[in-house]
Every structure is written in C-alpha cells, then in structure tokens.
Amino acid sequence: MSFLEGLRAGAIRRIQRLSVLRLIRFSCWVALVGLAVMCASILYPAPLLIIFAMSVGQVIGVVAVLCYVLSVVGDIVRGADHPPDEPGPARKFRAAGSDDSASDST
C-alpha cells in the first residue's frame, strides 16, 4: 500500500465517522460568524475593521463552504440507505454479521 492510498483510506474513514447533520450545522454556525464579521465592517466602517472583515471574514466563509462540501462528500460516500444523522458507513459497506443485520429484515 502506497502512502497516498493509505492517506486516501484514512480520509474516507474519517469522513464516514462524521455525522452529516453535525457538519452542516457547524457550517451554518461558522457562516453566521463570518456574516457577523462582514456586517460589523458595514455598520462601523473603520479602515482596520474593513481590512479585518475582508481577510478574516473570507477565511471564515471558506471554512464554512469546505465544511458543507465535506458533508456532501460524506453523504455520497455513505449512500442512500444511511440516515444522515447517524455516523458510520452505509449498510452495504458494513461487515457481514454486524448488529444491524437483524434490523434490515423489518
């Protein structure tokens, strides 16, 4: 196994452990913080506050978008048979004979 394959497998495992709803909520809160920073520069137009809002506010917005994209990727990796608020892989990727096999028959 090469270094890149190991890095890719580790990243997929981390994405599968995260809850999609938790990531989306975090993304929304971070976006609201970025919006507050931008609004502060409009309400109090001081030069340093505008520079702060344009640089730090943009970084905060990029973090929010990346969290949202990560939640979309995590949802795609899990598949359609997985509840969005449950961490872990989809049923088709779980090990055979796991605890969830009894709940599949209902």
Describe this structure in words.
- Helix 2 packs antiparallel against helix 3.
- This protein has a domain at 19-92.
- It has 106 residues and is mainly alpha-helical.
- The chain is elongated and about 55 Å long.
- It has 4 helices and no strands.
- It has helices at 3-17, 20-43, 47-78, 101-104.
Keyphrases for this structure?
106 residues; mainly alpha; 4 helices
Chain-averaged pLDDT: 78
Structural class: mainly alpha
Which residue ranges are poorly predicted, with pLDDT under 50 across at least 5 consecutive positions? none
Which term fits the overall shape?
elongated
- Sheet-strand content, in percent, reads under 5%
Residues in helices, as a percent range: over 70%
- The radius of gyration over CA amounts to 19 Å
Helical region count? 4
Largest pleated sheet: none
Secondary-structure element string: HHHH
Oligomerization category of the chains in this entry: single chain
What is the tally of beta strands?
0
C-alpha termini separation = 39 Å
Question: In summary, what is this structure?
Answer:
This protein has 106 residues and is mostly helical.
